[in-house]
Please model this.
Amino acid sequence: MRPSIAPAVERLGTEGAFAVLARARALEATGRDVIHLEIGEPDFETPPHVAEAGIAAIRAGETHYCQTAGLPVLREAAAASLADSRGVAIDPENVVVATGAKPFLFFTVLATCGPGDEVIYPDPGFPIYESAVRFSGATPVPLPLREDRGFSFDPAELEELLSERTRLVILNAPQNPTGGVIAQVDLERAAAAIERTPAWVLTDEVYSRITYDVDAPSIASLPGLLERTVLLDGFSKTFAMTGWRLGYAAVPAELVDPLTRLIVNSTSCVPPFAQLAGVAALEGPQDAVVEMVAEFRRRRDFLVPALNTIPGVRCIEPGGAFYAFPNVSELPIRADELADRLLDEAGVALLSGTSFGANGNGHLRISYASSLENLEQAVERIRGFVGAL
Ligand SMILES: Cc1ncc(COP(=O)(O)O)c(C=O)c1O
Model:
């Protein structure tokens, strides 16, 4: 008899970006030239003072097991940073540190949801939300993001989806894959509706520092909401630290122990030298962040108008993150086929909107965490390919 795989694992989804990256690398191995616009990570180095803090910590012997919930010094720095930026008091005891923001997506779902529960999450949205919900046995309930609302949700639709069965509502702004943000009035209406249910909130704010002249308010800042909200932030995007695997969240008191137990059962702790680099990132000079965001803005300001000059392509201006989400529904080809063929025939790696849920249909996701030169070339390759359809 063949041994089998657990059904829960069969229900896990994956991240399209990693699959397309693998295909792109395979093409490159055959000598093809590929422009990478698929992966969501800053194309900048970790700021030198942050990297040096990590190296100094390794030299000082910070290479052993440490506290599961995080080093007190990082929990304090993260609490101060969250409190300052979101305008709410946050106790370091309520801050938990993990190997990236991602574990919080998974562990918050596992700590709060099970069969019979419903979880509302953005669609299109980061694919791990739906994947984690399916793994837990809970029912995923997609909340459509509307292009005509700048890729935010319609609060009336959220009100309709909320019920006694809703155990968790996941929000994300600035948003992956659309770059959308949520207006304060919509958050207020959402908060009022959520408070009438037994739902926790997970607000994924890993792109909170990457905005362009717009506010990306947090639901955790609204009166009474912090007590039911996991407020998630991280280092990957803000400080170009994707490989350090470091993230943190302010969590309600009742969830500190469940989340800590999930961490001790899986990774034990985050390497202390990475955490000490995180302290340097939060407390040190912020010039590198400011410069990176300014560069992302230059690229956005080139990319979005350029995409709009391609017949059949429409792209709204994203308010944050480093993604454009052009609408290609007027082209005579499905978005997933278009994405495949752009890679195979034009050497441009990007993602179909359908990698982010059914509501991503008719769109592409372009990560502009790539040089202006690459973006210019990519636009011309897309224009040429689309023009020949
Ligand atoms: C919306 C969103 N949340 C979480 C993550 C994961 O970030 P981390 O590298 O901190 O685990 C990503 C990464 O792409 C993301 O786009």
About this structure: Residues 287-308 form the longest helix (22 residues).
